[in-house]
Amino acid sequence: MTTADLSPSMKKALLTAQRNEITEFHIYNRLADGCKDADNAEVLRRIAKDEQRHYEFWKQYTGEDVAPMWGKVRWFVTLAKTLGLTFSIKLMEKGEEQAQDVYGGIADVLPEASAIVSDEDDHEHELIEMIDEESLRYVGSMVLGLNDALVELTGALAGFTLAMQNTRLIGTAGLITGVAASLSMAASEYLSTKAEESEQDPVKASLYTGIAYVLTVVLLIAPYFIFSSYLAALSVTILNAVVVILVFTFYISVARDLSFKRRFTEMVGISLGVALLSFFIGYIVGEVFDIQL
Questions:
Q1: Cα separation of 95 and 125, whole Å?
Q2: Is 150 in the same domain as 110?
Q3: What is the mean pLDDT of residues 198-227?
Q4: N or C: which terminus of the chain has fewer CB atoms within 10 Å of its end residue's CB?
Q5: What span, in angstroms and rounded, lies between the C-alpha atoms of 178 and 123?
Q6: Domain span holding position 270
Q7: What is the distance between the alpha carbons of residues 129 and 124, in angstroms, rounded to a whole number?
Q8: Cα–Cα dist 113/101, whole Å
Q9: Residue 138: which pLDDT band, with cuts at 50, 70 and 90?
Q10: At 91, which CATH number?
Q11: Cβ count within 10 A of residue 207
Q12: pLDDT at 292 over 60
C-alpha cells in the first residue's frame, strides 16, 4: 500500500500515531538522561529507539515528517522529576493502551501494524520490571502515616469543634495532638520495621511515616488558624481531607496499578465516618459537662 492508496481518515490516523511515537521517543530519551540508575537508563534508551523505529514505520506510509508534542514531553519529564519515574511512566502507559486500540484499527488495513502493537505490549512489561524507586518501596509507610493522620486527626478536630467552639483553641489542640501522634507513629514504624528484619531501612520507614503524618496535620489544622467560624473551619478541613485522599489515592492507583474508585471510596468513607461520629461525641461531651469556651 502506498500513500496514494490511503483514505483521508486513515492517513490522519497514521499521522496521529506517527506524532505519538516521536513524542514518546523524546520523552523516553529525556527520562533516560535524568535517570540515575544505569540499568533503568539503558532500558529507557532502548525503548526510545523502538519508538523512533515505529515513527519511521508510519512515515513510509504517510510520506511526511511530523513534529513531537513538546508540551507533552515537558509534562511527563516534569512529572518524573516531581512525582517519580514510576508514576510518570505508568501514567504514560495508560495513553499507550489507548494507542494500542488505534493501532488495532490500523492493523485491519495495514497488517504490518500488528508488530507495533506487540512492541507496545513488550514496552509495558519491560517498564514494570525495570522500576525500582525508593519512594515506592516505602509507600506502605506513607500510607500508614497518611491514613492514621486522616482518620485520627479529622475525628479529633471534629470532636474538638463542638466541644470547644473556638477556632484558635481547636487549632492549637489539634496541632499538639497531631505532632505528638506523628512522633508516636514514626517511633512505632521504626520499631515495627526493625523487628520484622525486612529489606527496608527502619530510619527511612519512620521518616516516611512521620513526614506523611505531619504534612497531613498541617493541611487539616490550617483552616482553624485562618477562619474565625469554627463550622467554616471544620468544613474546609473536611474538604482538605477529601482532596488529600483524592490526590494520594490517584498517585498510588497509577503507580501500583490499583483500583482508584475502590480505595478512594473506602478511605473517604472511613475518614468521614469517624469525623461524623466524633462530631456528635464532641456535642454530647459539651452538653454533659457544660463546656463553654
A1: 15
A2: no
A3: 84
A4: C
A5: 44
A6: 135-288
A7: 9
A8: 11
A9: low
A10: 1.20.1260.10
A11: 17
A12: no
Instruction: Note whether 128 and 139 are same-domain residues.
Output: no
CB-based contact 279:160 (threshold 8 Å): no
278 shares a domain with 151: yes
Could you tell me the three cell numbers for 250? 490517584
Q: How far apart are CA 12 and CA 21, in angstroms?
A: 14
pLDDT per residue over 145-176, tens digit each? 777 777 778 878 877 877 777 889 888 988 88
If asked whether residues 65 and 190 sit together in one domain, one would say: no
In a domain, 293, yes or no: no
Q: Please check whether residue 119 lies inside any domain of the structure.
A: yes
Domain boundary at 132, 147, 171, which? Answer: 132
Domain count of the chain? Answer: 2
Backbone φ, ψ for residue 74 (5° rounding): -65, -35
Integer distance in angstroms from the first to the last C-alpha of the chain?
Answer: 82
pLDDT in tens, 81-123: 887 787 888 788 776 665 655 665 666 666 666 666 666 666 6
